[in-house]
Amino acid sequence: MTDPIIRIENLHHTYAGARPIDALRGIDLTIRAGEYVAIVGANGSGKSTLARHLNALLLPTRGDVWIERANTRDPKSLRAIRAAVQMVFQHPDSQLVATMVEEDIAFGPENFGVSENELPERVRASLETVGMWTHRQRAPHLLSAGQKQRVAIAGALAVHPRILALDEATAMLDPAGREAVFEIVRALHQRGTTIVTITHEMEEVARADRVIVMRAGQIALDGSPRDVFARADELRALDLDVPPVVDLSRRLGLPVCLTPEELGAALRERAHAVIASRAAAKQSPIYSLEIASAQKPCLAMTLDANDHTIIRVEQLSHWYLRGLPLQARALENVDFDVTRGETMGLVGATGSGKSTLMQHLNGLLRPQTGRVRVASYDLADARTDVRAVRRAVGLVFQQPEDQLFAQFVGDDIAFAPRQFGLDKDAVRARVRWAMEMVGLDFDAFKDRMTTTLSGGERRRVALAGVLAMRPQILVADEPTAGLDPRARLQTREIFRRLRAEGTTLVVASHRMDDVAALCQRVTALNDGRAIARGATREIFARVDLLQAAGLAAPPIAQIAAILRAQGWRVPPDILFADELVAALGGA
Questions:
Q1: How far is the CA of 352 from the CAs of 81, 149, 231, 284, 525, in angstroms?
Q2: How confident is the model at residue 484 (pLDDT cuts 50, 70, 90)?
Q3: pLDDT higher than threshold 80 for residue 478
Q4: In order of start, what are the domains of the chain with their CATH numbers?
C-alpha cells in the first residue's frame, strides 16, 4: 500500500473573534497518493476550512497537517507544499490576479520557476483543457462567473500539481461546463493526480473513490460512495441528500444504484420475474405504464387573466468596452417579459448573457440600445430615478461576497432599511424577519463577522439583505449555488412563500432541477440571444434546444431519457421523481 500523501492528526482550527468559532475539532485523516476523495457536509460543517489547511493557507490551532513529508507549520516547506497542492476556490475572483487571462495562467508556473520556453505550452494546454483558449486575451473581470471559474482551474492545472483540491469548483458552471470539469478531473485522476473535491453535487460524489462526510467540524462518515449512499437516512439527518438515481433505486425497492445504467439493469432483473408472474396471471406488465398529462403534478399556478406584464425588455443589446478594441457583445436584440406574480427562469450556458440581462432589471446597467420597462419605470429614459427602481427591484448577485461589506451580519442586512429612514425598532424587526426567512437564527448570527461565514452562509446573508428591502420584484442570480441540499430546499421554499405574497421572481440558475421546481416559464439564452421562451415542461422536453444552448435537462429527465433508450416506456416530458417512480410502477 502506498504511503499517505496527506496526513492529518488531531487537527483543530478556531477562528478568533468576539465569539470564537471552532471550525475543525479533532480531524484525523489520511489520503493516499492517487485517491479521488470527495468531502461533503452541510454549510458551515468545516469543509472549506479543512481544504485551506491542505496548502497551508490556514495553519492549525492544534494538531498537524503533513503534505507528503512536509509539515504545514514549517515555513521552509511552504513553497514545496504549494507547488504540490493547487487549490481552486469556491469563488474564482479570489485567485485571479492578472489583467489578461493568459497572463493569469502564467502567473503560477512563473512563480515556481517554469522556464520561458515551457511556459507558453503550459498556458495553451491548460486553457485548451478547460475550453478557454479563445478567451486568452480577455480581461478576467469581463468574463462571466463560470468562465472565471474555468480560468481558475486552468491556472491550477498549469502548475502540474500532485494534489488538486477543488472547493465547490463547479458551483458556477453550466451543466456542459460542469461535465467538462468532471472529465478533466477524471483524466487527471487516471494519470495519478490525487483529487480532493469539496462539493454539494452528489452526482460528482458518486464518481469518487471515497467519500468523507463532515458534521460540525468533525468526520461523521468515511467510506465508498455506495456504502455512504446506502445510509441515506443518516445523510438526511446531516442536511445532505443522495443523487437522484440513488433516491430512485431506494424508492423502487432496488439495491443502491450509482448510475442510470445500473438502475436500468436492476429494473430489468426485477422486471423479468415480475412480468413472468403477471403474465402467468394474464395481467398487463406494470413497467409499460403510461401517465396521462392530467395525472402529472402541476409545475406552477395558473396565471389569472387580470395579471399583466411587470417587466418588458425589447430589442436589448449590450456591449462591454463598447467602441474599444476589446469590445465584447453580451446581449443582442433580446426580447423578454415577465408577468406580475410569476416566477420566470433564465437558463443558458456560461457567458450566455443571463447576468448581464438581470443587471438591466434594476438599473445597474442602462440600455445601450433597446428598451427596458420595469413596473412603471422606463430604464432607457435618462431621467428615470434608478434609486426608486432599486427599491422596487432587489438583486441578489451571483457571488454574494460582492454585496457583503459590513463587518457584522446584522449591520449588513440592516443597511438598506436604514437608508429608507426606518426607526431602530422597525429596522431590527426587518432584519429579524429577513434572517428567519433565509434560515439564519437572529441571535446566533447577527453579531457574526461576515468574514467568518461559509460560502453558503454568505449567500443566505446576501439574500436576507435584499429581502429586508421588501422589494416588489426579486431578481436572483444563481441563488442556490454553493448551498447544501437542506439550504437549497429552504431557498426554494422562501421563493414559494415570496411568490404567494405576490412578489415577482426572476431566477437564473444552472441547476435545472431548481428551475423545474420553481419556475412557471423559462427563457433560454444562447450567445447573448433569447432563443426560446415557454412553459417550463415544454422547454425541458426540447432536447435539441437544450443542446443548442449548452444545457442539460433536469437530472430526473436525464435518467428517464436513458431508461427510454434502454426500452422502458416512460413519457418524454418527465421532470420529477414521483412521475418517474409512477411510470416505472413503483410505490
A1: 38, 15, 39, 47, 6
A2: confident
A3: yes
A4: 4-239 (3.40.50.300), 250-288+559-583 (no CATH), 341-359+384-552 (3.40.50.300)
CA-closest candidate to residue 357, choices 393, 332, 323: 332
Q: Cα 308 to the chain's mean position, in Å? A: 32
One-letter identity of residue 564: R
- Strands 62-67 and 70-71, by their bridges, are antiparallel
User: Are the beta carbons of 230 and 256 closer than 8 angstroms?
Assistant: yes
The pTM score is: 0.80
Instruction: Give pLDDT tens digits for 495-539.
Output: 999 999 899 999 999 899 999 999 999 999 999 999 999 999 999
For residue 138, give the C-alpha cell: 480577455
Among 573, 555, 551, which Cα is nearest to 263's? 555
| Angle, in degrees to the nearest 10, between helices 119-129 and 101-111 | 120
Above 70 in pLDDT, residue 411?
yes
C-alpha cell at 275: 412480468
Whether 291 has a pLDDT exceeding 60, the answer reads: no
Cell numbers linked to 60: 492549525
Cβ atoms of 311 and 389 closer than 8 Å: no
Give me 476's grid cell: 436572483
Asked if 185 and 197 count as a contact pair (C-beta separation under 8 A), the reply is: yes
pLDDT reported for residue 183: 86
DSSP type of residue 449: B
What one-letter code names the amino acid at 443? Answer: D
pLDDT digits (tens, 9 = 90+) for 122-166: 999 999 988 899 999 999 988 877 788 889 999 999 999 999 999
Q: What's the chain's length in residues?
A: 587
| Residue 188, all three cell numbers | 487527471
Q: Tell me the Ramachandran region of residue 419: left when phi exceeds 0, alpha when psi lies from -120 to 50, beta otherwise.
A: alpha
Among candidate residues 334, 479, 484, the one with its CA nearest the CA of residue 394: 479
Residue 365's pLDDT is 96
**What sections of 404-475 are H helices per DSSP?**
409-419, 424-437, 442-445, 455-467
